Amino acid sequence: MKKLLLTMALAAFASTGFAADKVRFGTEGAYAPWNFMDDSGKLAGFEIELGAELCRRAELECEFVVNEWDSIIPNLMAGNYDVIMAGMSVTDKRKETIMFSDEYYPADPSRYAAAKGDEFDFDNLKGKKIGAQGATVQAAYLEANLKAGNTIKLYEKPDQSVADLAAGNIDLLLADDSFLKPVVDGSAGNIVFVGPGVQIGGGVALGMRPKDTELAGKMNAALADVKKDGTLDKMIQEFFKKGPFYKTETVRFGTEGAYAPWNFMDDSGKLAGFEIELGAELCKRASLSCEFVVNEWDSIIPNLIAGNYDGIMAGMSVTDERKKTINFSEEYYPADPSLFAAAKGDKFDFDNLKGVKIGAQGATVQAAYLEANLKEGNTIKLYEKPDQSVADLAAGNIDLLLADGSFLDPVVEGSGGMLVYTGPKVQIGGGVAVGMRQKDSDLADKMNAAIAEVKKDGTLDKLIKEFFKKGPFYAAE
Q1: CATH 3.40.190.10-classified regions of the chain
Q2: Which element (helix H / strand E) includes 393?
Q3: Is the dihedral of CA 207, 213, 217, 222 positive or negative?
Q4: What is the spatial distance between Cα 115 and Cα 142, in angstroms, rounded to a whole number?
Q5: 38 exposed, middle or buried (CB, 10 Å; 0-12, 13-18, 19+)?
Q6: Least confident range of 202-211, 284-293, 347-356
Q7: Which of 135, 175, 179, 409 could form a disulfide with 70 if both were Cys (CB 3.0 to 4.6 A apart)?
Q8: What is the pLDDT of residues 186-213, one digit of tens each?
């Protein structure tokens, strides 16, 4: 089959003059507005412009090759080009043969189009001539679901199917909404959408040979760039009048950076810990760009309300008192009992605790508990940072320390037996959750959806096991 080779002269040389790798893209050239031949006979469309931008960012020299749709995967595997960029939806069946990049257009519902005035019983569709382009997800759907009692007609090119619909040679045409919309809009009302939308396949992505992992890495990095800076959304708006889908909103989380293993500064001075990793995962799933801001614990809620950041991820328990001021997400760690720690050998009468110096971090549920229940007859000492309270306990400056078990566990275990748990467990407050301003309901919805996902697929339990050696708590929900 004769192929048209079109060199696009994208980014060819780095500043040193060294030529970048050359990559060939296979496309159909007949699927407007994705890819088509313009009036001058040159390739044009959404994918041609996006391909050029991806290659520029990946520092690759690229060219497009026009290939018939029905042989586009076989000719990729034969080495006639390196990438397919042709409005191709990701499907499990195709993934058995080729590898896909990250998507560059979200899953698009398929739609039925028909001549104006025609009516159909989609609950019992019989005796109809239904068209689709061959070797597409729509063709597979029709063959699997509507072949009995109907005539399925498949076309080599999408424009042929539209022409047959307009001529009355078929009753219905099933195709991507993004392809059919300009057809319907440009038909002067003679062709209309009918029936239900049908979700078939996933988003649209680049197809590559499974062995070409290096190329896939370059393409995914470039795709991430054009999503992040809004370039992809701008192109989608230009060609499809839809979106935005990908430009990421930046969300800032306040954290203490001093509450291991929840959040702390590592040896290189960077934030680390359970909440830092979980926050990154939640933001990825919510399509948000996120960053963490270190803030002192005692002002962490006031500075959220003041707008210095958008959320709190700092081992904060849900309490009725805090809910008067801020909104909470669903929990990402279950209610954790507070425990008393003391020097080894010290003994206490917890039924009548008097004359004891008891420490806790200020502005915590433990501090509120001590002030409400053990202030009379004892000395309550509150600390700005949790590590200060541990140091004072080890030095004998306080007799007891009340804190979350998840914080105290590594302290007690790492003390060489010098610090021990003592007394009863105290349940104070609820689970740990993301704190947000009460007006930010959209952010709360995104966080809750992402938290539900990491609970369901076991990611959250895996992180909890890694940092706390506990669980699982959520995978079975």
Answers
A1: 5-106+203-240, 110-198, 249-335+431-468, 338-426
A2: helix 386-395
A3: negative
A4: 19
A5: exposed
A6: 284-293
A7: 135
A8: 999 999 999 999 999 899 999 999 999 9
In whole angstroms, what separates CA 149 from the centre of its chain?
A: 42
Distance CA(68)–CA(35), nearest Å, equals 12
**Distance separating alpha carbons of residues 67 and 30, to the nearest angstrom:** 10
Place of tokens 């930010």: 440
* Closest to 34 measured CA to CA, from 64, 4, 2: 64
The arrangement of strands across the sheet holding 288-294 comes to 288-294, 249-255, 311-312, 432-436, 327-333
Look up residue 433 and give its amino acid.
Answer: A
**If 0-12 CB within 10 Å is exposed, 13-18 middle and 19+ buried, where does residue 180 land?**
buried
- Specify the pLDDT at position 476: 58
Q: Which of 395, 397, 393 is nearest to 408 (CA)?
A: 393
pLDDT of residue 204: 97
Q: What is the 3-state secondary structure of 164-186?
A: HHHCCCCCEEEEEHHHHHHHHHC
Bond into 410 cis (ω within 30):
no
Report which of 449, 100, 439 is spatially closest to residue 287, judged by C-alpha positions: 449
The structure's pTM equals: 0.55
Q: Where are the beta strands (DSSP E) in 243-365?
A: 249-255, 258-259, 263-265, 271-272, 288-294, 311-312, 327-333, 338-343, 357-361
Strands 379-383 and 432-436: unpaired
> What average pLDDT does this structure show over 333-343?
96
Element (H, E) at 206: strand 204-208
Structure tokens at 366: 């433990």
Is 3.40.190.10 the CATH classification of the domain at 5-106+203-240?
A: yes
Give how far Cα 299 sits from Cα of 255, 305, 371, Å.
Answer: 11, 10, 19
Question: Would you list the DSSP string of 22-88?
Answer: EEEEEE-SEETTTEEE-TTS-EESHHHHHHHHHHHHTT-EEEEEE--GGGHHHHHHTTS-SEE-SSP
Q: Give bridge partners of residue 289 from the DSSP assignment.
A: 250
Fold of 338-426: D-Maltodextrin-Binding Protein; domain 2 (3.40.190)
CATH code of 249-335+431-468, in short, is: 3.40.190.10
Helices (H), 229-317: 231-240, 274-285, 300-305
CA 183 from chain center: how many Å?
33
